[in-house]
Automatic annotation (TrEMBL):
Stored InterPro entries: 6-blade_b-propeller_TolB-like (IPR011042), AB_hydrolase_fold (IPR029058), Peptidase_S9_cat (IPR001375), Xaa-Pro_dipeptidyl-ppase/CocE (IPR050585)
SUPFAM superfamilies the UniProt entry points to: alpha/beta-Hydrolases (SSF53474), DPP6 N-terminal domain-like (SSF82171)
Pfam families from the UniProt entry: Peptidase_S9
Record-annotated Peptidase S9 prolyl oligopeptidase catalytic domain positions: 429-634
Superkingdom field: Bacteria
Organism, as annotated: Duganella lactea
Record-level Gene Ontology MF annotations: serine-type peptidase activity
GO biological process: proteolysis
Protein name (Swiss-Prot/TrEMBL): Prolyl oligopeptidase family serine peptidase
Amino acid sequence: MTSSAPATIAPYGTWPSPISAARVAAGATPMSSLMLGGADGSDIFWLAGRAAEAGRNTLLRYHGATTEELTPAPFNVRSRVHEYGGGAYVVDGDTVYFSHFKDNVVHKMVAGEAPVAVTRPGKQRFADFAVDRARQRLIAVRELHGDDEHAQPANTICAISMTGVETVLAQGADFYSSPRVSPDSRSLTWISWDHPRMPWQGTTLWLADFNDDGTLSTAVRIAGGADESICQPEWSPDNLLHFVSDRSGWWNLYRLCADRQRVEGLCPMAAEFASPHWTFGNSMYGFRSASEIICTYIDQGVSRLARLLPGSGKLEAIANPYEEIRELRVGNGYIAMLAGGPAIPMELARIDFTEDGVEILAQSIEDLPDQADLSIPTSISYPSANGRTAHAFYYPPRNQNVRAPEGGKPPVITIGHGGPTGMTVNTLNLKIQYWTSRGFGVLDVNYGGSTGFGRAYRDLLKGQWGIVDVEDCVAGAEALVARGLADGERLIIRGGSAGGLTTLCALTFHNVFKAGASYYGVSDLKGLDQDSHKFESHYNEYLIAPKAQADAIYAQRSPINHTDKLSRPMIFFQGLDDKVVPPQQSQMMVEALSKRGIPVEYVELEGEGHGFRKAENIIRTLEAELRFYQTIFKLNHA
């Protein structure tokens, strides 16, 4: 309900807000890994993150008209294959198979019964499951670790019998994903790639038929290579292999013709029908029938929903209220989506093919703020260095009960997203509204290198990490100042992981920002190479330079080597269990700044890894960051 009381006048950055850090933590229920199943295919499954339970992932099912939890504590449906995981479960009718995070054991769970272990504890991890019904087994990506924790694990495509026997089906590549069994059970497709490539640089799509003993015939390369990224292979109901490729410069849909000799594009356009493979199990299209595909695609950073007729290439829009469609599954007569928008939190939505409207089955935020307190972002583009155009979402300060004195301009927080191969979206996010409701503006940047804008834009970061991303964040902040939307003396930059490097480089090598916050950010590129896990162990060869030339560039770009140039106040947040960016990266920066007398704070969190899952730590970090800015800029505490 909108307040009718006169607005309080208070300086920007000091506004009393109805969105507390506790409310952010309570409302931040991650939703992921959408699946369909049940006896008739009408049940909808998904994972929900429980911040109050140390970030445990639990499996939920929408059945009939009710939602039930299938995996009570202590079960944690999560995988760490490639460290980032995803694809931690699969559904076959009323049976679910899932990976339990604590011991990586695969469990089988039949509706109404307790989970039963299928595999044995060991050094193996599993993800991206497919059900091979004809042979009564699972097929999955297996990551086998050895006794030496510093040695890289071996990745394969592996079959798992119902007695836990593991049989390798495909091996030899550094990485695998997306094993998918054809509807007639005769064939298997999968994706592989090798160092030094990341999956958005170059992958290969393979196809092989099953032998009578369940092994595979000689695999045939269907598409892909060193400079073509293949994503999300799927089979149509009539056994035609479909996939997404960026061979045109955009991730578009293709299919293998029935003769298995030709590949044809289905709807060429300057839009992205896939997202980067950071986690397993991404799904952005599915089949209503053999002649109709339901898909979502990203157009200039915003998701669209459509019906595609492969025979004609005709694409028809499907009305919906969302601007981000993260996952999509197609059932018998309906679409299920994880989707959100500027005033809509991530939610589980169902669209019936025979009815108008959207049915909301679950929301990531149960206690929504009043609409009048929400800052609705504007999509902006602006000039950056060397003639580039960069993109961002700008959120103005917004609070129905408070306004700033005439003539004031707000402090603005610029955010560099993680990845760095990734993108920011405009779905309602309470962590952003936490700031805007207190009188801060927020600029959330899709810098050069972000996905959602085609391969050429994505490749702007090739060899330029720490430069292009920083220049686009700097240019964005300067554009807001020029438009009268920001106080140039109170510009802040913050970011996590790769966004932490952007933050540190912006504060070290530029003078635009006056303070910053690094969440488990990269400060030492050389150290990152030495400590990185297998999946990202060659990532810097793309982002910085091949190893033979890298050392000199690492020295130039690593903020830890240039602390004499960093004179801006900073706050650092670091999980002590982080295996992606180890704690010493943050600790070295804090020590260097402390020695020089620069205002610095360091918050370390036990039991947290790369990203914070526990409610108490979400609260702690937000409140500490707010206090830091209010102290640095001498804002009155609200």
